[in-house]
C-alpha cells in the first residue's frame, strides 16, 4: 500500500481540481443521460462511437493503475479516484465531507437515477458505501489512520432518491479500536443507521489516541 506525495502546494491542487472537476461532472451527467434517454434507437450507435472516441482520447496518456491516495506538501489528501468522494470518479455522487464540532463529519448529497435500487429508492449498497466512507472520515478526525474492521448497517425504512444528509462521529476508543456511529437521512428523516469498529493498523499503532477527536 503506497501513499503518494505530490510535490505541489494546495493552491496548485485547487487549480488541478478546477480543471478536472468539470470533466467528471460531465461524465456524471452522461451516466444519468444514458439511464434516462429516450432518443430513437437508431441514434445509439452514433452516440456510442462518439463516447468511445472521447475515451480513446483520454486513454492516449494515462497511468498504469488506480489513482491512489495522493497528498500535497501540506498533507492535504487527494483521494480523487475514491468511489464516494473522488474528484475524478464519476461513480462518486460525489459526497463532499464537512467537519463540525467534536469530530463530527457530515455531508449533503443528491442521489439521482444512477443510485436507484428499488423503484424510486436508493440502493442499499450505496447507503452502505456512503456511510462506510463518512464513518471512516469521522474515525480519521483524530489524525490517525484506521480501516473498517466491522460495519453494521440497519435499514430503518426505505430511502427516497433525492437529497440525503449524512452524519458520523467517533463515540469511544478501546486501544486501537474506534467505535463510530452514523446516520443517513432523506427528506423524511433518518432512514439508515450504521455502527462500526475502525481499527488502527499495526504499522500506525505507536500511540493510539485515547481521547475524543477535535
Ligand atoms: C481521513 C481519511 C478518511 C478516509 C475514509 C475512508 C473510509 C473507507 C474505509 C474503508 O473502506 S477501509 C477498507 C476496508 N477495510 C479493510 O480493508 C480492512 C482489512 N483488514 C485489516 O486491514 C485488518 O484486519 C485490520 C486493520 C482491520 C485489523 O488487523 P490487525 O492485525 O491490526 O488487528 P489485530 O489482530 O491487531 O487486532 C487489534 C484489535 O482489533 C480487533 N479487530 C481486529 N480485526 C477486527 C475486525 N475486522 N473487526 C472488529 N475488530 C477487529 C481485534 O479483536 C483486536 O481487539 P482487542 O485489542 O480488543 O484485542
Automatic annotation (TrEMBL):
InterPro entries: HotDog_dom_sf (IPR029069), THEM4/THEM5_acyl-CoA_thioest (IPR052365), Thioestr_dom (IPR006683)
Keywords: Apoptosis, Cell membrane, Cell projection, Cytoplasm, Fatty acid metabolism, Hydrolase, Lipid metabolism, Membrane, Transit peptide
Entry's localization field: Cell projection, Ruffle membrane; Cytoplasm; Membrane
Protein family membership: Belongs to the THEM4/THEM5 thioesterase family.
Catalysed reaction equations from the record: hexadecanoyl-CoA + H2O = hexadecanoate + CoA + H(+); tetradecanoyl-CoA + H2O = tetradecanoate + CoA + H(+); octanoyl-CoA + H2O = octanoate + CoA + H(+); (9Z)-octadecenoyl-CoA + H2O = (9Z)-octadecenoate + CoA + H(+)
Membrane topology: Peripheral membrane protein
Domain of life where this protein originates: Bacteria
Official protein name in the record: Acyl-coenzyme A thioesterase THEM4
Pfam families (UniProt xref): 4HBT
Enzyme kind, highest EC tier: hydrolase
Coiled-coil features, chain-numbered ranges: none
Residues in Thioesterase domain copies: 120-180
EC number: 3.1.2.2
Higher taxonomy: Bacteria, Bacillati, Actinomycetota, Actinomycetes, Mycobacteriales
